[in-house]
Design goal:
Largest sheet: 4 strands, antiparallel
Helix content: under 10%
Radius of gyration: 25 Å
Strand content: 35-45%
Low-confidence stretches: none
Structural class: mainly beta
Shape: elongated
Number of helices: 1
Distance between the termini: 55 Å
Strand order of the largest sheet: 1-2-3-4
Mean pLDDT: 80
Order of helices and strands: EEEEH
C-alpha cells in the first residue's frame, strides 16, 4: 500500500511505494507481517517544477525480546474509611 498527501499549498508527499517498515508478530503456528510505518519517498511542489526524491538503505532485521513486568501495589486503605467518603 502506498499513498499521497496533498497539503493546503498543493504540495504533494508520496509515502510507502517501496519504503516501508514492517513489524513481524510471531504466533504459535504462524507469524503476522504488518506494515507499521511508511517512509517519505517523494515531495512534489504545487506547480510541479520541484521534485525531491528519497531512497533508503535496507536495514537488518531487529528482534526485540518480549518483556514481562509484574507490579504489586499496596494501597493501605481499609473498608471502614470508605463510608466516610460517601
Amino acid at each position: 500500500m502506498s499513498f499521497n498527501i496533498r497539503d493546503e499549498n498543493g504540495d504533494q508527499f508520496g509515502f510507502g511505494e517501496s519504503a516501508r517498515e514492517t513489524t513481524v508478530t510471531p504466533g504459535t503456528d504462524f507469524q503476522i507481517n504488518s506494515t507499521s510505518g511508511w517512509l517519505l519517498e517523494q515531495m512534489i511542489s504545487q506547480n510541479g517544477r520541484d521534485t525531491v526524491s528519497f531512497t533508503y538503505n535496507p536495514t537488518a532485521r531487529v528482534q526485540i525480546p518480549d518483556i514481562t513486568e509484574v507490579w504489586t501495589v499496596v494501597d493501605n486503605v481499609s473498608n471502614w474509611d470508605l463510608h466516610l467518603l460517601m
